[in-house]
Amino acid sequence: MTSARKPRRPRALAKCPSGIKGLDQITHGGLPRGRPTLVCGGPGAGKTLLGLEFIVRGATEHDEPGVIIAFEERAADLAANCASLGFDLDRLVAERKLVIDEILISRADILETGEYDLEGLFIRLGSAIDQVGAKRVLLDTLDSLFATLEDTGLLRAELRRLFGWLKGRGVTTVVTGEKGEGGALTRNSLEEYISDCVIVLDQRVSDQVATRRLRVVKYRGSLHGTNEYPFLIQSTGLVVLPITEISLDYPALVGRVPTGIRKLDEMFAGRGVFRGATVMVSGVVGSGKTTIAARFLEAACARGESCIFFAFEQSPAQIVRNMRSVGIRLDKWVKAGRLVFQAARPATFGLETHISLMVAALDAHRPHAVAIDPISAFEPSLGQPDARDMVMRLVDVLKSRGITALFTGIAQAGDGETTGFGLSSLIDTWVLVRNLEQGGERTRSIEVLKSRGQKHSNQVREFLITDRGLDLQDIYMGPEGLLVGSARAAQAVRDRAAGAALEASIAEERAALRRKRRSLQAREAELEAEFAEESRAMHRRIEEQRVALSASASGRAKIAEGRGLRTEPAAPRRDGRTS
Amino acid sequence: MSRPARRADAEWELRLYVAGQTPRSLTAIENLRQICEEHLKGRYHVQVIDLLVHPRLSREDQIVAIPTLVRKLPTPMRRIIGDLSDTERTLVGLQLRPRKPAGAPP
C-alpha cells in the first residue's frame, strides 16, 4: 500500500494540560507551555478557581509542582475556599508540591519616596519556584498591584519584565484579571503583556437562569475552539462542557434495534428501528410515551446494552415505580448498573448546560441507547434558533456514536401531528400515540408517521397498556369507521357470530348438494335398471319372432312334400340347403 | 533635638531591604544613614538585608518593591518604598517630623 509522503509539519506548540475537564479539549491539549495565560472575567466568574485547579491538578496529576502568589486573599482563605472542591492545599504544601505566598500590601502602608523597582516580587517568585521546582505558577490577581502602586508607568515596565522573566524560567503561568469596563478585556489592560493565550469567563443570567460561559479569545500558535462553552463549577472542580464540533458525516448504520414491543417492531417490517436512529414518540399527556421509552430501554438492557434515561419531568424513583405497575422492571437494571438515570428540572440550568451535561453523561457511561423524556420540556427555548442548534449538536453526538435515541414529546391535543417542537428535521422515525375517546371510553392508538430509510406500516393500531406490558392490536374497521376498545370487542363478537352463521349456511348448502347428488345417483341407477330390463325384453321378442319365422317356413315345406308337389324352388333356406 | 515619635522613647528598629549592590541600593543606604543620623541619633538600629543573599526573608515583611524600608519599631509597622531620595516623604512615612517652629502645624 503506497501513500503519498505527507509534507513535514512544523512542530506544534508545546501544551500544558490543565487537567480541567473540557478545557484541554477546547484548547487541543491545554495551556501554552512555558508561557503566560490570562484569565479574565467579572467578580465571581471563577477565575481564581480555574487557576487553582490548574495548579492543583498539575501537582497531583502531572507531577508538576506549583506556586501560588496570592495578592488578594490570604493563604488560609484560599485553602478554605477550595477545600470544598477536594483540593487540599495544605497537604500539597506539606508534601512540597506547592508553595503559597501571600503578597498583601495595601495602599495605606506604602509610601513612595524615590525610585524603586519590583525586584522583591521577582525574588520572592524565584525563591518559591526554586523551593519546590515549580513548573506552574498562579498570579491572582495582578490588579492588586495596580491598585496599590501609584507609578503605573513603572508598574507596566516591571510587568513586562516579569513575564519575560517567567518565560525565561520556563514556567506555565496563569494570571487572573478583573474584567474591564465597556468591553475592555481587563481593567488594567493586562492583555497587553499577556498575549499568548487569553481566556474570558462570563456569567450571564437569562430568564432567571445563570449560565457560566468560557471563551478562548486568543491562543497564539494553536487551533482552538472559538465558541463560548458553558461550564459548571461542580464538587470536583470546573467542568467545561464543549459540544464536540462534529461534521455531518457520521456513518449510517444498517443494524436494527427492536423497540421492545414486538408488534410495534412488526410495523417496521418486522425488525425494529435503525441503530443510531433518532426516534420521536409524541402524543398528548397520558398517552403512554414514557412507558414506551421505558420498555425500549428495558429491552436494550436485557440484550446486554447499557442505557441512560434522561428524565426532565419525573423523578427516577417515580418512573421506576410507575413502570413496575405495567410489568416493566427498571430497578433490576439500575442495580445491575446497566441503566443510569439522570434527572433535572428544565428550569435549573440553561438549555446549553443541560445538553452539555447530557454529553458529559454520554462520555461517562458510553451507552448504546438513551431515552430523553420529554424533550418538549425545553419547549419555550426550542423556538429559538440557538436552542435548536444545541439540540442538533446533541443529535450529532448521538449519531456519531451510533447511540439509538428515543425522544418523547408532549403535544397538545389536536396538533400531535403538526408540532415537531421544531425538531422534525432531526427525527428519523416518528411514532404518534393518540388517545381516542369513543363510545364513552378512552383507548389509545399508535401509528408510524415516518421512518426514514425503511418500509413501515401505515396502519393505525390500537395500543394497550396492561399490567403485563405493552401490546398492539389491529383496529377494526366497522361500518362507521375505526373501532377501538369495547366497541371493537363488540364488533368482534358480532363479526364472529356473523362468521359462524355464514359457515353454518355454507355447511348446509354442502349437505344439500351431497343429498342431491345422492338422489341423482339413485335415479341414475333406477333408469339404468329399467333400461336393462326393457332391452332384455326386446331381445326376447326378437328371438321369439325369429323362431316363429323359421318354424313357419319349415312347416310350409313339409306340407308341400306331403302333397307331392314340387313347389317352386323354395327360397333358399336359411341353412343354405335346396330341396 | 528631634521630637520623639508618638510612643515613648523606644529604640528604632529599621530594616532596609535591597537586592544586591545596585546604585539604587547604595543610594538608599546612604540616604537612610543621613536621615537616621540627623533625626534619630543614638536611638536607632538599622539592618540591611540583601534579598539576593537571603531571598526567603522577603516574605516576613511582605517585600515587593526594592528598596523597601520597614520600620519595625516603634509600632505600627511602616513601609516605605524607594531609594529615599524624597526626604520629606521619608520622614512623613517614618512618622518623624523635622524640627519645626513652635506653633506651626505638625
Structure description:
The complex is a heterodimer of chains A (579) and B (106). Chain A has helices spanning 23-26, 47-61, 75-83, 89-94, 119-132, 143-148, 152-169, 262-266, 289-302, 316-324, 330-335, 351-365, 379-382, 385-400, 485-562; strands at 15-16, 31-32, 36-41, 66-70, 98-102, 111-112, 136-140, 172-178, 197-206, 209-219, 228-234, 237-240, 256-257, 273-274, 278-283, 307-311, 339-343, 369-373, 404-410, 429-438, 441-451, 461-466, 469-474, 476-478, 481-483. With 579 residues, chain A is α/β, with parallel strands linked by helices. In chain A, the strands form five sheets. In chain A, strands 5-4-7-8-3-9-10-11-12 form a nine-stranded mixed β-sheet, sandwiched between helices. Chain A has a nine-stranded mixed β-sheet with strand order 17-16-18-19-15-20-21-22-23, with helices on both faces. Chain A has a two-stranded antiparallel ribbon with strand order 1-2. Chain B has helices spanning 23-39, 57-60, 87-93, and strands at 12-18, 44-50, 68-73, 78-81.
Show the helix and strand layout.
The complex is a heterodimer of chains A (about 575) and B (about 110).
Chain A (H helix, E strand, L loop, with lengths): L14 E2 L6 H4 L4 E2 L3 E6 L5 H15 L4 E5 L4 H9 L5 H6 L3 E5 L8 E2 L6 H14 L3 E5 L2 H6 L3 H18 L2 E7 L18 E10 L2 E11 L8 E7 L2 E4 L15 E2 L4 H5 L6 E2 L3 E6 L5 H14 L4 E5 L4 H9 L5 H6 L3 E5 L7 H15 L3 E5 L5 H4 L2 H16 L3 E7 L18 E10 L2 E11 L9 E6 L2 E6 L1 E3 L2 E3 L1 H78 L17
Parallel strand pairs in A: 3-8, 3-9, 4-5, 4-7, 7-8, 15-19, 15-20, 16-17, 16-18, 18-19
Antiparallel strand pairs in A: 1-2, 9-10, 10-11, 11-12, 13-14, 20-21, 21-22, 22-23, 24-25
Helix pairs in contact in A: 12-14
Chain B lengths: L11 E7 L4 H17 L4 E7 L6 H4 L7 E6 L4 E4 L5 H7 L13
Parallel strand pairs in B: 1-2
Antiparallel strand pairs in B: 1-3, 3-4
